[in-house]
Specification:
alpha+beta, about 35% helix
């Protein structure tokens, strides 16, 4: 099997990547393509699902060609995806009825506030482990069914979208389900993605009738929920399709759960933080769904065939890497790599704090109306201070989560495994270690999201024998230890709460 591999489709918020891994977990093929970000109104974020599917085919083909590989050398395909982003499509034509509503989209904030006013928050949290928020798929699906233009039937009559959904003519899914459907023709999702919809009972492990009724989402449009690593397979690619081969599609994980899997956090207490568009800090809590008293989410980590579900506590930070992109957008930097150089040129921020609440604040604040804020500026404030404050905001938000995680789990953070594009920035990694006052461990293969879904698919088809084999693949690239005095870190962090307070409940469009 030395000339066979496992492929991973990593469909993220800003683009789609295809990677191929060998037995040692090393990358042998890699291709990437961005897709358009659509902003119809302030706070609204959409993607074109057709563009995402076309880009997926493009990067898979490009990645294999560039590495001189044939699709027949792939023993399995795994999928990992931006979570919560929601697509509704026509079962017969395969065409979406509306653009995908992205996880960052805030258009249903009013609906969430209505749930809060009606006293429904606790029931939602108890069943789903989630805070009621526009972040999740339930209100997005409801909005699409309420607002997308009804499709014309062959009779030229228009019909309510919900009626069509009840008749099985419309399907709903997160991006993993959309890709699996296009790859195999089957309507399937995995437990980790289902747990992010705010429609799935994570304790009963089934779609919840009461929540479906609350959001008026017909059960007939929902995908079948399967293990994240599925020996029964989700299906096969079409040998007459774009790959020209019948490849098993055998694993799927929401991107943050995939990173947990790729970082080999298989045991209770293992934790990782992924720095992407947002940042997502997950701790494996084993077979117990630990309830949070500190604004964290209780979510499904992963499930292997024939094994119990493993749960996780999660701190969701909506904007970290996207804050660096914003610095580029407003021409404060030319590229992300420049942030470290500029930040180092300033000994401190001179009292400037930046709260990157561009799409509200996630854990532990959960304020959909918070907005981006820069405070503490003087006439002497320079570009370097704002850039450094932006990097510090990533570290502060992560400390918010680390402290909540310790309080909920009772497990002290002594070491945190990190991954994602931003961890290539050594300055940020050191800053993170200083602010949290813990060791930051960066692995050799930092594309652990793609690696995790490859591991899930490969385990399902026997490409890897067991998780111990995967643990032996994990290698440290660099470890960062605190270099800042604890009292100084505490003092810097102490004013962060003041800055956050000024960002809260800012958006009052109504």
């Amino acid at each position: 099997m030395s000339d066979t591999y496992v492929g991973s489709i990593d469909q993220g918020t800003t683009g789609t990547r295809f990677m191929v891994f060998d037995h040692s977990g090393q990358v042998v093929a890699n291709a990437y393509e961005q897709h358009e970000q659509i902003y119809p109104e302030p706070g609204w974020v959409e993607h074109d699902p057709v563009e995402i599917w076309e880009n997926t085919k493009s990067v898979v083909t490009e990645g294999l060609d560039a590495a001189g590989l044939d699709a027949t050398q792939l023993e399995a395909l795994g999928i990992t995806n931006q979570r919560e982003t929601t697509v509704v499509w026509d079962a017969a034509s395969g065409k979406p009825v509306h653009n995908a509503l992205v996880w960052q989209d805030r258009r249903t904030t009013d609906r969430v506030e209505e749930l809060e006013a009606n006293g429904d928050i606790e029931e939602i949290r108890e069943k789903t482990g989630l805070e009621a928020d526009a972040y999740f798929s339930a209100t997005k699906t409801e909005w699409i069914l309420d607002n997308a233009q009804p499709l014309k039937l062959q009779t030229s009559r228009t019909q309510d979208l919900r009626d069509r959904a009840r008749e099985g003519e419309l399907l709903m899914g997160t991006i993993d389900a959309w890709l699996i459907y296009n790859l195999t023709g089957n309507h399937v999702t995995d437990v980790s993605n289902a747990s992010r919809t705010m429609l799935y009972n994570i304790r009963e492990l089934e779609w919840d009738d009461d929540l479906l009724a609350e959001f008026d989402v017909p059960a007939e449009m929902l995908p079948e929920v399967r293990p994240s690593s599925d020996e029964d397979l989700y299906g096969h690619t079409d040998p007459d399709g774009f790959l020209g081969a019948e490849v098993p599609v055998a694993g799927a994980l929401g991107d943050q759960q995939a990173a947990l899997f790729g970082q080999t956090c298989f045991d209770e207490g293992d934790a990782k933080n992924t720095y992407g568009t947002g940042s997502f800090y997950l701790m494996n809590t084993g077979n117990e769904a630990v309830e949070s008293d500190h604004g964290l989410l209780t979510t499904i980590g992963f499930q292997r065939s024939g094994e119990p579900v493993q749960y996780a506590l999660e701190g969701s930070i909506f904007v970290t890497g996207a804050a660096i992109e914003w610095l580029e957008d407003v021409d404060l930097i030319n590229n992300a790599a420049q942030t470290a150089e500029l930040a180092r040129s300033a000994e401190s921020t001179d009292g400037v704090y930046m709260v990157p609440a561009f799409t509200g604040l996630g854990a532990p604040h959960w304020d959909g109306r918070a907005r981006g804020t820069i405070v503490g500026m003087t006439r002497g404030t320079e570009k370097k201070h704002i850039v450094r404050a932006t990097l510090e905001s990533i570290a502060y938000q992560t400390r918010d989560i680390a402290e909540a995680m310790e309080a909920d789990s009772g497990v002290e953070t002594t070491s945190l495994r990190v991954d994602g594009g931003a961890v290539k920035n050594n300055f940020l990694c050191q800053l993170q270690s200083d602010i949290i006052q813990t060791n930051i461990v960066r692995p050799e293969v930092d594309e652990t999201t793609a690696l995790g879904s490859a591991y899930a698919a490969g385990l399902a088809v026997g490409y890897w024998d067991d998780v111990d084999e995967l643990r032996s693949n994990w290698q440290v690239d660099r470890q960062f230890e605190p270099d800042m005095d604890e009292s100084k870190a505490d003092k810097m962090y102490g004013r962060w709460d003041d800055a956050v307070e000024r960002s809260l409940d800012w958006a009052q469009e109504d």
